[in-house]
Design goal:
Blueprint (H helix, E strand, L loop, with lengths): L6 E3 L2 E3 L6 E5 L7 E6 L3 H20 L2 H17 L1 H12 L3 H21 L7 E2 L7 E8 L2 E5 L7 H12 L3 E5 L5 H13 L7 E3 L4 H10 L3 E7 L2 H13 L3 E5 L4 E5 L5 H13 L9 E7 L3 H12 L20 H17 L2 E4 L18 E6 L4 H4 L6 E7 L2 H9 L3 E2 L1 E5 L3 H10 L4 E4 L15 E2 L12 H5 E8 L4
Bound molecules: nicotinamide-adenine-dinucleotide (NAD).
Length: 485
């Protein structure tokens, strides 16, 4: 482990032009500074854009099979360092080691999956009105793509953007969150180990507001793929539209699980808690509302509280810890403010509601797993993304009422139902206004070969992962060929 890391631009490790740096702090222990990372400037951003632009023609011209081989080699490099990179992910992000390993494995799978996509058809033939004309389409690269990513999945999200971008012939500049730069550096090291040509994949660390404008508006940039908060996403979309760029946004959620009286209670309690509290509730698809049918409300809530009280909070490498810290002191304070707000709104605090005050935990940014009962749909705790270990429990009269509550928020990322009834499951699948809907599963998680993304305020209506990832990272060229003479 080094004390200081650099940007990866044009195949070189480059210090920021102004020499400014930011510390990266372990959220489980605020006294543990992992290393210093560049806080890049517009000058650095332009250098990365120039490198990606210079590398584009040769990369785009390669056979897609060859591009796929580079992705496979990067996957092998990541796999060879799985344990080390997962441990660094845990240290800078705070999730448990098994979750960090699972996320790193997902990154490896995504690289191999998109390597495979390099061998799939890249267009279609279309019958022409003229019998001698060959009319067909080809998917061609979008160009230089800026990838702006959050801290909560610092391996998986950069890779689920970069792998399709590279597979389909684009060059990229990854701007990872300033709160999780180390894993992005490791991804660059894996591409470097794979022998990727200089400038094809660049990493620029630092605060988004300092480099965002250049990375979005530079004439050489064609596409911007963003994951993060609604506020930043809307800002980026405005800039992208004003400068004629293609953009893709995946943003927040207020995901709900519906619980019906015919559910398997034990399974429902376990998966509700997993959705709400794994990764400290900091998944965009985390369960932050549970909407419970009135006939099972008391039974379910009693079981949920009992189980929540047994959950151990601790650092990611503590074997029996269920939940780690949130990402930063600011994040912890924001979650605690939401807890206070919910109490002021009249919700009933059932457990948690504070930060641990004993032992090593006081050095980290922890919040105890928190349940609120008697939450009403119009309360802010039922409407706004908290992004922490806080679950709001709402009561519904029946399935229709539950669906109205579920859909009555600005977001539409993920939703679940727990039931044994096929009719209820199908009604839910039809009517839940969310991009990811699950029956008898937690709201969080989707397999990497399936499309991922939200509806309403959670997304810009595009999708990532799966075959559909190609839609964003390519453009369609229609080609017509006739005989000469
Ligand atoms: P954020 O919006 O604060 O930051 C995301 C990224 O945007 C970071 O890299 C940041 O540096 C950059 N950024 C900030 N200001 C910018 C600007 N002016 N120009 C360009 N870039 C800028 O979000 P966050 O706190 O890192 O992540 C948490 C949010 O991400 C939550 O809302 C969560 O729901 C969302 N999220 C969504 C998904 C999804 O797929 N829908 C997945 C993970 C996280």
């Amino acid at each position: 482990m080094r004390d200081c890391y650099e940007n990866f631009i044009d195949g070189n490790w480059v210090a920021p032009a102004k020499g400014e740096r930011l510390p990266n702090i372990n959220p489980a222990n605020r006294h543990d500074t992992i290393a210093q990372f560049p806080n890049s400037s517009a000058e650095d951003a332009q250098a990365a854009v120039n490198a990606a632009s210079k590398a584009l023609p040769a990369w785009a011209a390669l056979s897609s099979h060859v591009r796929g081989e580079y992705l496979r080699k990067a996957a092998d490099a990541l796999e060879a360092r799985l344990g080390e990179i997962a441990a660094d992910l845990m240290r800078e992000e705070g999730k448990s080691l098994p979750e960090a390993k699972g996320e790193t494995m997902r990154g490896i799978t995504l690289l191999r999956y998109f390597a495979g996509q390099c061998m799939l058809p890249d267009g279609e033939t279309i019958p022409s009105a003229n019998a001698s004309t060959l009319l067909y389409t080809r998917r061609v690269p979008l160009g230089v793509c800026t990838l702006i990513t959050p801290w909560n999945f610092p391996v998986a999200i950069p890779i689920w953007k970069a792998a399709p971008a590279l597979a389909f012939g684009n060059t990229v500049i990854l701007k990872p969150s300033e709160l999780s730069p180390l894993t992005a550096i490791h991804i660059a090291e894996c591409f470097e180990a794979a022998g990727l040509p200089a400038g094809v994949f660049n990493v620029l660390c630092g605060e988004g507001a300092r480099v965002g404008e250049t990375l979005i508006t530079a004439p050489e940039v064609t596409g911007i793929s963003f994951t993060g908060s609604v506020r930043t996403g809307k800002h980026i979309a405005g800039q992208a539209v004003a400068h004629g760029k293609k953009y893709q946004l995946e943003m927040g959620g207020k995901n709900a699980a519906i619980v019906l009286p015919d559910c398997n209670l034990e399974q429902t309690v376990a998966l509700t808690l997993q959705g709400a509290f794994k990764s400290a509730g900091e998944k965009c698809t985390a369960t932050s509302r549970v909407i419970v049918h009135k006939d099972i409300y008391d039974t379910f809530v009693t079981a949920l509280v009992q189980k929540t009280l047994t959950l151990k909070v601790g650092a990611g490498d503590v074997a029996d810890a269920y939940m780690g810290p949130v990402i930063s002191a600011q994040a912890r304070d924001r979650v605690l403010r939401y807890i206070e707000l919910a109490q002021n709104e009249g919700a009933t605090l059932l457990c948690g509601g504070d930060a641990p005050t004993e032992g090593d935990l006081v050095n980290g940014f922890y919040v105890n797993p928190t349940l609120f009962g008697n939450v009403l749909p119009e309360m802010r705790i039922a409407q706004e993304e908290v992004f922490g270990p806080v679950l709001a429990i709402l009561r519904a009269a029946d399935l229709n009422d539950a669906l109205d509550i579920l859909n009555g928020v600005e977001f539409g990322l993920s939703a679940s139902i727990f039931t044994r009834s096929l009719d209820s499951a199908l009604a839910f699948a039809d009517r839940a206004n969310a991009g990811l809907v699950r029956v008898n599963g937690e709201t969080a998680g989707v397999e990497p070969q399936a499309p991922f993304g939200g509806m309403k305020g959670s997304s810009s209506y595009s999708r990532e992962q799966g075959l559909i990832a190609k839609d964003f990272f390519t453009q369609v060229k229609t080609i017509s060929i006739d005989r000469a003479g």
